[in-house]
Structures are given as C-alpha cells and as structure tokens.
Amino acid sequence: MTGKRAFVTGVSKGLGAHLASCLAKDGWQVTGVGRRPRESAEVSAAVDYLQADLSSAEVIGGLVAKMDAVPDLVVHNAVTYPDRAAGRPELDTIETTMRVNALAPYELTLDLLAAKPDDQFCSVVVINSESVYHADADSAVYAASKAALRVLTGGLAAACRSTNAAVSTLMLGPLGDANKVEEIRRIAEKRGATPAEITRLFLRRSNPDLVIDDFIDFDACYLSLRYLAELGAVANGMLCRLDGGSAGTLV
C-alpha cells in the first residue's frame, strides 16, 4: 500500500502524530492537520502539515480544496476535551467539543467522498473512544461527542455502500500517552511501587470491565489502523474494538 495518499487529523501530538509519522515511514504520502504551529508539532517532518482549527466551520469547509487529490486513506483522530478544572462547561465549550469531535469528521468525510473519483477506493477510519460506554459527571460532554460521532459514522457507512469507499471505527480504550505514563511514574515513585503495579491498580479501579493490565500503546493502534485500511470494502461499517474489554462483555 506504499505510495498512496493519506490524510490524518489531530497530528500535532500524541496518537495522531504517531499514526501520521508511521504512515509516512511506511511510504505513504501523508497530509496531516493540527492546531499547533508546525514548529511545535511532534509529527514527523515527512508529513505535509496543515495548521487548522477544526472548530471553525469555514476551516472545515475549505480543507478539501487545499488537497492536491482525494486521499486513499482518511484517519479522523482530532479530539478536544472540556477543561475539567474550569468546572461546569459553558455552552460554547460544549459546542466546540461537539464540532471538533463529531461534526468535523462527518462534514470532512462527506466533502472528501463527494470529491472522490468513482474509480478510486477510499478507506475512512474514525478513531473513537470507549468513553461512550462510561459517561460520568466529568466526562459527559466528551462522551456525548463521541457517542454522536459513533452514530454519524454509522450513517456515513450506510451512505458509502456501493460507492467504492469504506467507513470503519477503531474504538480505543485507555491509551498510554506520555502525560499519563509520566503521572503513573511519579505516583509509583512516591509510593515506592513499580509503574506496572500502579498502572494495574489504576486500570482496575477506573474500569472494572477492563481485562488488561496495561495501557494500550500507540503501535497497537497503528497496527489496527492498517488492518482496517487493508480490509478494503468489507470494512465498511465495521467496529474494531481495541479497548481491553472496557465496553463490557455484552457490547
């Protein structure tokens, strides 16, 4: 699949930067979108970087026009969270969360598929979160945006039937991002325990349904992404859970 074009959102840091960088390393021509300026982004220099704020309807509507061609793979990874320290989120914060996490992927996918030549296959992989199954007082707005994304993704998959495109979902559990790993390390050092012990304790307390003892690493996410992309049209509507069972046994 090398030599093909990929478009990835949310690439300035974290999982998005990792996915885009891995695709570029594997020979893909990658265009990535991030909120940070290029000089502060953590993504590989091999990625063609576009700085853009996906909370803006005007920005979303103009992204496809900036591309030389419709990509063969689209990865929707961009995400935003309300600031928990700020207390009850204001309405504009809720709207921004919904726009970035749910409406932007939906609108961008529709625009890209409308611009796609009929003979070109396009795989769209939407990154979602197991938080849709576990909303609480602090995470309700974020979880609601991800639940909306799940419903909209189902609609996109239905619209893609017989159109030489596939829209699938990669549902992720607790990720081992740098900040989380560092926090675990500090707690372990303070308590005189190992990071592995603190990680197991955290995961078991935070989600009783979880049946793994470690965070999900970025490489596992990339392998799952490649798997979905390589399935072709049969992946349309597919949900791939990489969540350690955190959604519960009957989901």
Describe it:
With 251 residues, the protein is an alpha/beta fold. The protein folds into 2 domains: 5-174 and 216-242, 3-Layer(aba) Sandwich (Rossmann fold); 176-215, no CATH class. 41% of the residues lie in helices and 16% in strands. Strand 1, helix 1 (14-25) and strand 2 form a beta-alpha-beta unit. The model has no long low-confidence stretch (mean pLDDT 94).
Number of E strands: 7
End-to-end C-alpha gap: 32 Å
Roughly what is the average pLDDT, rounded to an integer? 94
Look up the CATH topology of the largest domain: Rossmann fold
Overall structural class, as computed from helix and strand content, comes to alpha/beta
What is the helix tally? Answer: 7
Q: What count of domains describes the coordinates?
A: 2
The CATH superfamily title of the largest domain: NAD(P)-binding Rossmann-like Domain
Lateral strand order in the biggest sheet: 3-2-1-4-5-6-7
Family: Belongs to the short-chain dehydrogenases/reductases (SDR) family.
Keywords: Oxidoreductase
Protein name: SDR family oxidoreductase
Organism: Actinokineospora xionganensis
